[in-house]
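Notes, p. 3: input format for complexes.
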Amino acid sequence: MNSPTKQTVQTLRLSVIGTGYLGATHAACMAELGFEVIGLDVVPEKVDLLNSGKVPFYEPELEEVLQRNIAAGRVKFTTSFAEVADFADIHFICVGTPQQSGSYAADVSQVFGAVESLAPHLSPGDLVVGKSTVPVGTAEKIAEILKISAPGVEVVWNPEFLREGFAVQDTLEPDRLVVGVTSPGAESRMRAVYAPMIEKGIPFLVTDFPTAELVKVAANSFLATKISFINAMAEVCESAGADVVQLAEAIGYDTRIGNKFLGAGLGFGGGCLPKDIRAFMARAGELGAEEALTFLREVDQINLRRRSHTVDLARKELGGELRGKTICMFGATFKPDSDDVRDSPALDVAVALANAGATVVVHDPKGTVNAERVYPTLTYSTDAMKAAAHADLIIHATEWMQYREIDPAELAKVVSQKNIIDARNKLDVAAWRAAGWNIRALGRPTA
Ligand code: UDX
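Output follows (447 residues plus uridine-5'-diphosphate-xylopyranose):
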């Protein structure tokens, strides 16, 4: 990449601070749109890996997009805030906001850390664009900090809605773009950044800071509520002998309800939905609006109950005793097409079963390395058939396509007992029963 000073360059030059799922994808995709991009991470190994065209996590298509744009000289990575500020004048903050330990609230230290590190290098006219998911009020605080440490630098809040597994597609073709601004100048610069998308007709919503910040947590809260709603129905279905899969299909035809995010099963996990609804509750409490969000506590409880319910079901299927039994988990990641095991329902269940005395063998197509880092005492296998050998019970915990393609008759040959729990409601129950399996699906009739 040639590097004339930023003032002489006509093409927009962007920086992306933080190269996790959000930042690495945003950097590569902005380069794909034709911008010149520099990404920053404080971990030198990550920067080296990205500069060599490798993505430090699994995300379909991302590595190809990254390599194509490195080759075209449109994206590079650094650890230097000075280099970033020298190169670009629009800076996207994409660092993580994990749950604080011992609290529901979000830990925003990386966001403020990034702003503080960047501020001394910024010039008047630069734009700091927040994409991280933050408690409402954060953008305003950043603007106040920058007013003193980097006068003339403006803040924009531009939440990101990408799903892991579809991150490239969601970044290049989002459902909508939301920008919280405080000046027409900032709005027009954001319109320039997203011009290729706006031209395609993608809705571009301009709001104030708090609305932009709230849009993200409101969207995630709604999605989490939808999943917990159908999982609550699954609990009732189990008691009533009804079928939650058919129920979801039937209510989903009502276009006011819609058929998406009505997949009953082991519930939601990952680095976003669980911590975002908790952080939202914590922030509402600080603002004196805690009553408005008490329902999210129930959403969280219903979700966590799916995990304990699956452990109870496993115990029941194995005659009331887990000690001495061998259980194979199909899936370790929080969702398919990802290697992310953060708050993974599958791993939570695996650990609970192991703590109750079962020998647990975990299979996952992409997640075993990350899983082993967090739970080194479980046994892992990258071969599904080997993982299932001598199992008394299999639990289908993450809906990778590979598990739907398994021949139940072939799997029957390697296990000790033909017991399976479909905790994601994605297996063909009739086919498994026909192959002689005792299959239990969450929220569905026993036979
Ligand atoms: C989510 C939001 O979808 C995204 O817009 C936001 O930017 C980040 O958080 P992600 O965490 O990648 O994205 O996963 P998502 O596809 O939303 O799934 C979250 C969890 O819900 C997964 O564990 C998934 O298995 C579970 N899920 C999803 C269900 O249990 N049932 C469903 O019907 C859908």
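The domain at 215-447 is CATH 3.40.50.720 (Rossmann fold).
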